[in-house]
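Researcher: We're teaching a course module on how sequence relates to structure. For the next exercise, students receive a sequence and then see the predicted structure as C-alpha cells, so they can try to spot secondary structure elements on their own. Here is the exercise chain.
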Amino acid sequence: MAFGDHRSGAPVVKGVVEYLLQRGVLVSVSDSQAMGTFQKVLKESGLRDALKGLNVQFREFREFIKVDIGEPFNGIEIARDVMEADAVVNLPKLKTHAQMLMTLGVKNLFGCIEVCPHGALRAEEPVVGKAIRKLKGL
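Model: And here is the predicted structure for the students to work with:
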C-alpha cells in the first residue's frame, strides 16, 4: 500500500472487518513496516479513519518466532501474532503502480516476516535484496 492510490483498499477492509465483528470475531489489523511507521501506514492508507469506531485492535508486529519452513530456506522469523492467531485474513488488491499489476495477496504477507530488526531498513537498500540475504543466512 505504499504506492499510488492506496486508499482504495480501506473500504474493502472495513467491509470485511464489519462482517467478522458481526460474527463475534476479535479483529486485529497488523503489519510490520520495513520503511516508515505503522501509524503512518494506518493514516495514509485510510484504514485508521475507515475503521474508526469499530472494535478493532491495531497491532504492529514486534515479536517474531523462528519457524522451520523446510528447504531451501529452513527457518524464517514470522510474527508471533500471526502464528498464534486462529485465522489470518489476507485481502489481495490490484496494484496501482507499474512495479506489479497483481500479486494475488502474496506480497501482502511480506510484513509477517522479519526482514530486519525493528524495521530499520536503509532507504538505499532494496527490501527484496535484504530479505534474500537474510533468508540465505538462516
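Model: If you want an answer key for the exercise: Residues 6-137 form one domain. The CA atoms of residues 65 and 77 lie 5 Å apart.
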